[in-house]
Write a structure and sequence with these properties.
Layout (H helix, E strand, L loop, with lengths): L4 E5 L7 H11 L5 E6 L16 E4 L7 H14 L6 E6 L6 H8 L5 E6 L8 H17 L2 E4 L2 H8 L5 E2 L13 H11 L5 E6 L9 H12 L4 E6 L5 H10 L6 E5 L4 H7 L2 E4 L8 H8 L4 E4 L12 E4 L4 H9 L5
Parallel strand pairs: 1-2, 1-4, 2-3, 4-5, 5-6, 6-7, 8-9, 8-11, 9-10, 11-12, 12-13
Helix pairs in contact: 6-9
Length: 331
Amino acid sequence: MSSDRILVWGLSNNRAGTEHVIDTYCRASPFAKFDFLCYEAPVNYEHLFASGDNRYYVIPIKIKHPIAYERALRSFAKDHIDEYKMIWCNINDISNIDILSAARNVMNIPIRCVHMHSSSIPDVPVTKLFSFLNRKKLFKVANQFWACSHSAGDFLYSSYDYEVIPNLVDDKHVSFSEEKRNLVRSHYGIENSLVIGNVGRLTEVKNQSHLIKLLHMLVSSGRDAVLMLVGEGELEGKLRDYADGLGLGSRVIFTGGQSDVQAYYSAMDVAAFPSLFEGLSIAILEAQFNGLPCVLSSGISSEVRISSSCDFVDLDNLAEWQNCILNATRE
């Protein structure tokens, strides 16, 4: 018979939204025991394993080592038959649902939950192809369907019933800190500048290049403004080159991934999120808890609004983006 242990898929070393949701919910469930199946040792989340109750297992990355991946997943499934009460499969697309198939066909996991964290799928051909092929199969291998928002649920599940599981925010860890604000602004020498901030992976979907374009317009009009990008990702090099090409190298601050995001939210004057799409962005929720006014792409669901200081603007309306940023005021 299965135990009360839960198998989790979706944790990586990224300090990003999906990982944050997994981390927050697991920390908020002290009486549950979790096993994590990962592509790498989750060293950025070592606190989850401090008690010794939770465990992690590493298998090869499918796209890099497909044969080794298949063997490792098959071996893991056979070694853990009847061990889990539930699998919690966190996804942003459905290009890979192998673990759900193994949970149903080999491991005998009775509760097989898929949790969607995005309201669209990245425009990557292989991802879109396999997501299309797996769409019908998903409803055969999973039996519980969760989403971070209605927009994410409607996108993936269509007419199937699903449950919205709201993202948790620990307000004590993201609330405004005057002391940390001063420390960060002093560290970067931006005490008197207008600080436009963005927290998120440096990826095509997050669209940070839009903010660099806006910064160039603001600086060209005589504004003392800087852009603070908190996060890491595959587009960092291109974004740096873009900023340098516009003469903004010293005004675009790449902080990398940060564990103390409270300090960086506190250092900002306004948060701007020009994402092409989102599920229910943790970063936008946290920014509002910090008291930041937020300027958001109209492609982001209004479900993310929890304060009165959110403006939704079409991406092609650059004048309105500038206007909202310049007139934003902290709560």
